[in-house]
Specification:
By secondary structure, this protein is α+β, with helices and mostly antiparallel strands. It is built from 7 helices and 11 strands. The N and C termini lie far apart (55 Å).
C-alpha cells in the first residue's frame, strides 16, 4: 500500500462533508436531467441542509440526502419534504446517516416510515502520487472523454450493465444527461477500444466515485483498478483530500474498495414512507 495521509476520524464533521458531497453530486445529476430533458420536470430543493431530489417518479435518485445532518428535523420540515415528492407523483425516501440528529429516526418512525435498505459509505484519504497496487495493467489506457464522446461513454457503460433489467431507457438517456453535467467521465481503452467506464464528481474537496462498468469480454484485466487509480490521482491534483464511494454491505464492491484502502465510515439506512390506501 502506498503512503497516504492519516485517515480522518469518522465523526460528525467527516460525515457532514461526505453526505453533502454526495448530495451535491446528485444535484449535478438532476440539473443535467433537467437541461437534457426539460419534460422530465426534474428538480431539487434544499431545506435546512437536507437536499431533496426529483428525477422522475421511479428513479432511484428521487430521494433526500443529509436529512438531520445540519439541524434537528422538525415536523413542518418533513411535511414540506413529503409534499415535494408526493405532489410530483413520487414515493418518499430518505437516506439517513447514523450521525444525523436523533430527531430524524425518531420522527420517521413516528410517521410510519420503514427502513428498507442499508448502504456502507466508504472513504480514504488521497494524495497526488497515489499508487494502488504494483503490477497494474500497462496495456490499458485511461483518459477523460472529449465533449463529443458522451454517447460512446454511455454505450460502453450500458454493455457492462447489460445483465441488469430495466436500464435500457436510462442508459439511452445517460449520454445526453452527462453532456449537461459537471461530472467528469473517463474511459479505459485496450488497443484503442473502450472497455470500461468511470465517473467522478468533485464537491468541497471530496471526490465522489461512480459510473463503474466493464464490458463482459474485458473483465478481470485490471480496467477498473486503472480507472480507480486514475480518478483518485486526478481528484488529488484538483484539491481533493478524500474520496467517497457507497456499496451494499458485504458486496463485491465493498470488498474491492477495502482492498484499495477504503474504510467504512458508517452505514446509512434508507427509509420509505408506505403509501396509504
Amino acid at each position: 500500500m502506498n503512503r497516504v495521509d492519516a485517515y480522518p476520524f469518522a465523526d460528525l464533521a467527516l460525515a457532514r462533508r461526505l453526505e453533502r458531497g454526495e448530495a451535491l453530486a446528485n444535484v449535478d445529476f438532476v440539473n443535467g436531467r433537467a437541461l437534457a430533458f426539460p419534460e422530465s420536470r426534474a428538480e431539487w430543493m434544499e431545506l435546512g441542509g437536507t437536499y431533496a431530489m426529483f428525477d422522475g417518479p421511479t428513479s432511484p435518485a428521487t430521494q433526500t440526502f443529509a436529512l438531520g445532518m445540519s439541524e434537528p428535523v422538525a415536523e413542518a420540515s418533513l411535511d414540506e419534504l413529503e409534499d415535494f415528492f408526493l405532489s410530483r407523483g413520487a414515493q418518499v425516501f430518505h437516506e439517513v446517516c447514523p450521525h444525523a440528529d436523533a430527531s430524524a429516526p425518531t420522527l420517521l418512525s413516528e410517521r410510519g416510515y420503514q427502513p428498507i435498505e442499508f448502504s456502507n459509505v466508504l472513504y480514504r484519504p488521497i494524495v497526488r502520487d497515489l499508487r494502488l497496487i504494483a503490477g497494474s495493467s500497462k496495456t490499458i489506457k485511461i483518459r477523460a472523454i472529449d465533449p463529443h464522446e458522451h454517447e460512446l461513454w454511455a454505450r460502453t457503460a450500458a454493455l457492462g450493465w447489460s445483465a441488469f433489467e430495466g436500464l435500457g431507457e436510462f442508459m439511452q438517456q445517460l449520454g445526453e444527461i452527462n453532456a449537461k453535467r459537471s461530472a467528469l467521465c473517463f474511459l479505459a481503452e485496450l488497443n484503442g477500444e473502450p472497455i470500461a467506464t468511470g465517473a467522478l464528481n468533485i464537491a468541497d474537496g471530496v471526490a465522489i466515485l461512480a459510473g463503474a462498468s466493464t464490458i463482459p469480454a474485458a473483465r478481470r484485466q485490471g480496467a477498473q483498478l486503472a480507472l480507480l487509480e486514475f480518478r483518485l490521482r486526478y481528484a488529488a491534483k484538483h484539491r481533493c483530500d478524500i474520496a467517497l464511494m457507497a456499496a451494499l454491505p458485504g458486496s463485491a464492491s465493498q470488498r474491492n474498495a477495502e482492498r484499495h484502502g477504503f474504510r467504512i465510515a458508517y452505514t446509512r439506512t434508507k427509509w420509505h414512507l408506505p403509501l396509504t390506501q
